[in-house]
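Q&A log
Question type: sequence-to-structure
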Amino acid sequence: MIASAEEIARLRRRYLRMAVSICALDIGISVIFRIVNGGWEGLWISVVPSLVLLLGVNWLLAGRLFEPIRRFLKDEAKFEEIERRLTQLPLLTAQWVALFAVALYAWRGSLSWWLPGPAIAIGLQGQTIADFIAVCLLVPVYYFTYTYFVISDCLASLCTFIFERTGRNLTLYFGRYATKLIVALLVVSIVPLATIIVDLFSYTGERQQAEILVDAASSVIGLAISAYFVSRSLLRPIGVLSRAMTRVAEGDLEVRAAVTSNDEIGELTGRFNAMIEGLREREQLRETFGRYVDESVAATILRRQGQDARSGETGEATILFSDIAGFTTIAEYLTPAELVGALNDYLATVLAPIREHGGVVHTFIGDGLFASFNMPLTCEGHATAAVRAALDIQRAVGSRTFGDQGVALATRIGISTGPVIGGDIGAGKRMNFTLLGDTVNLAARLEELNKQYGTRILVSQSTRNACGETFRFDSLGSVTVRGRSESVAIFSVDPKRQETAP
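Response status: OK
Response body:
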């Protein structure tokens, strides 16, 4: 059950009270008429039909209109089955009230024709044809407008309740905000004026004054009540949407707004919810994407969507490759779960210094990783930052073990500085932002050469020159690396020797 029996009864009672509230207003108008014209003994002639039509019959019909919604709240019907009724509830309720008002005022106005004696006694005699027609047209229009906006306000509370319990919102929109606003303004401004103008041309003397007084007093009371519900009905959905937008502006993407009207504002609220859903999915995509590539790379790719990102860009950067020494042997005596646990623990340890010094991890390559400094994110002193990151990695890795089995892992690192090409590489829907060029290849080869030289960090001549005297470097001479025709000078960096570096 969507709502408890008590909650359903409360919602139903509120709707029925709002639907028949026009009866109290109508009786109030009859009382004003008696105050001005006297004849209190005939009050029942006006009040009894009002109680029968606007209270009794209207209550029964309103209950039937609410029945499908009650069945939905009891979880006996689907939302799609009652959505149209829910959307049209203000219109259907107001239509019946307007019909009852036509019958009621036709009855009252015609009393002087077929019941002249009692009509004279209670002050209903002498109504002109023009006044009779005007009353039978204008009062039902006012009653219709009043009921429509009162039930619209009730609908907003009902829709909010359903949204909070089920997450379902209106998706059918039959109303028009502009039409509602125009009708409200016309009824508020023209109906009272029209009735007074008819009185001016229909009566003279004291009768004219009495008729104008009745219409003016009734208009003041009726319009004061109507203005409250009209403003709530028109402004409440805007307020709901405005508050939701404020929360989004503050960074809350979990917000959803209840659709509380059946017009363009309701439709706009529905589209707002769809937009937030799209933003939330994009944020989730970014977070998920960031688990597989560095978050800054993910942000760069998402930001470059729609631009000519595949054309590539060239810049200077420092590239860092790392790998685990003897990983194949280690993998032989660990179970898959133990291996993955140790590797994830290790990579988290390696990742932290890279990010701390402004580097970007592009991808994990088995037990190693590929990172860059100064592309795609700017990094001042990128060569120095890369070497500092490498030294911190060696210190962090050398001082601990990894995984539940306490596996010791040694890291080999290769670093090179120079021009690189960055861009989105791939085909179709499979794309990857990566860096290309001789600098990238050299860093990868230097990482491999650590095994040959028994070192932990090897850097190229370009990286050595860019770092100046910041670190103590040990020259290992020149070597020919795979993929290059010319030999390159290489240098090792020992973390233990940096304590006395100038």
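Response note: The longest strand covers residues 410-427.
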